[in-house]
Write a structure and sequence with these properties.
By secondary structure, the protein is mostly helical. 61% of the residues lie in helices and 1% in strands. Helix 2 runs parallel beside helix 8 and helix 3 crosses helix 7. The longest helix has 31 residues.
Length: 275
């Protein structure tokens, strides 16, 4: 790599300063946020942007599937009640301050050079970038699959953590707002593989930020009960089965880990009518 370690870290710090400016200048008058300790700046930015993205993606997705497309995707009695969605929002909002701790810690470690993050694609070249990105995604698919599966298989973890999320266990209680309706420690545990991967494979920092953005949008989509039918994506049809059987479709973005480890259940087969 042509870029020195110090130059790489400087570029990453400048990038996070730019993100801070975009978010925090809009809500903290007079640049007062610049006097906060750097980790607190990061946490506050993650909290504000995460909350805004969660609510915006949830409301927009609900507006589309429950209002603009009402009676197209769901019969009336399958649409979650306003109360169910409100309770999901409350659970997510209580957990959000804690959810933001892990990305804040990750950013601190990246800025201090403890991970294998790099600042520019030019440091490694496009072929290596795509190889590293593929390896990173495979690692988090594997890690999240097993973390999620153990949250079911280990009874204390399920009872005290994951059961909070599985209160929403059928179509007429699941909504896009259920995507982040987790016990705080549950959500953190499922994100741990994404942090571990930063120490194992070189990762482009900007891509990492974009993936965090996609994560929030994805959780809303996959809990919306509308199956996209795009192989090998773990669409909402697969994830709805997970919420009804509790024993299938633990995967994150794709179905591959469930296929490899024998826990895949296909919604096309699940709801296929006998001849």
């Amino acid at each position: 790599m042509g870029t020195s370690g110090a130059e790489r870290l400087r570029q990453i710090v400048e990038e996070t300063d730019w993100y801070n400016g975009i978010v925090l200048d809009a809500v903290v008058p007079g640049g007062a946020w610049k006097r906060l300790p750097r980790p607190l700046q990061s946490w506050l930015r993650n909290y504000i942007s995460g909350t805004a993205l969660y609510l915006a993606s949830g409301f927009l997705w609900c507006f589309y599937i429950y209002y603009l497309k009402r009676n197209v995707y769901f019969p009336k009695d399958s649409i979650p009640s306003n109360r169910a969605m409100y309770l999901q929002i409350i659970v997510a909002m209580k957990a959000m301050p804690w959810f933001c701790v892990l990305p804040t810690l990750s950013e601190y470690m990246v800025e201090n050079g403890w991970t294998r993050c790099f600042a520019s694609v030019g440091e490694v070249g496009w072929p290596a970038y795509f190889v590293y990105l593929t390896i990173y995604l495979v690692i988090i698919e594997f890690g999240i699959y097993w973390m999620h599966r153990e949250l079911h298989d280990l009874k204390p973890l399920y009872k005290y953590l994951h059961a909070t999320h599985h209160i929403h266990n059928k179509q007429n209680t699941l909504s896009p707002f259920a995507g982040l309706a987790f016990h705080p420690l549950d959500g953190i545990l499922q994100a741990v593989p994404q942090v571990i991967a930063l120490f194992l494979v070189p990762t482009h920092f900007t891509t990492l930020v974009l993936l965090m953005f996609c994560e929030v949008v994805w959780t809303a989509n996959v809990h919306g009960c509308i199956h996209g039918k795009i192989w090998p994506v773990m669409g909402a049809g697969y994830h709805t089965i997970h919420h009804t059987t509790y024993r299938h479709n633990y995967g994150h973005y794709t179905i591959w880990m469930d296929w490899m480890f024998g826990t895949l259940r296909d919604p096309e087969q699940e709801f296929k009518k006998p001849d």
